[in-house]
Amino acid sequence: MLGKIELLDAVAPSNRGLNSSPSDRTAIGAAAAMLEGRNPTPDPLQATELLNGDWRLLYTTSQELLNIDRVPFASLGPIYQCIRLAENRIYNIAEVNGPPLLSGLVSVSATLEPVSTRRVNVRFERGVVGLRQPLGYQSPAQFIQALETTPKFSLLQGIDFRLNSDRSSGWLEVTYLDQDLRIGRGNQGSLFVLQKV
């Protein structure tokens, strides 16, 4: 589709936004807006087969996510947003690359509440921070299954904590959706460009 290739080309060198200059962000924002104007899925929350699944983040303006890269002696690896509409759940999983045996993981899980055909309210409930090996991390799908079957990981595995969902909430709007690309906007003005895994 016209515009999609331009957006993908624009975000490719940005390292999810870590390497983007103000002019890069302006160009990416304009390319995203042009594509949003041609959204082939006007009611994305009804298109469960398209929306459901694991999405890899290609680009964001969210400083909360990009600041994970500031962990000493580590670098931000792939970031995933995993949507499970049947359970009204969403999971954000960021891999952190470090020295051997010290690669980590930052994960938050939340409930979704649809408020329109494009927007969901998000209430974050649980966070997990730890090393991938003790957590048994292999993939986002496998880790989500572990999260759902483990009420609380032990301190030997990582830090597993509850979030105050009243204070840790926001909204996410799906502004573009096709078979393999999703654009979203968040309540803090953040832009997200994701590709289906």
Give an account of the 3D structure:
This is Fibrillin. It holds the Pfam family PAP_fibrillin. Residues 4-195 form the Plastid lipid-associated protein/fibrillin conserved domain. InterPro entries: PAP (IPR039633), PAP/fibrillin_dom (IPR006843). With 197 residues, the protein is an alpha+beta fold. It has one domain (4-196): Lipocalin (Beta Barrel). The protein is built from six helices and nine strands, in the order H-H-H-E-H-E-E-E-E-H-H-E-E-E-E. The chain has an eight-stranded antiparallel beta barrel. The radius of gyration is 17 Å and the shape is globular.
Give the integer mean of the pLDDT values: 93
Coarse structural class: alpha+beta
Helix fraction bin: 10-25%
**Overall 3D shape:** globular
Low-confidence stretches: none
Contiguous helical run count: 6
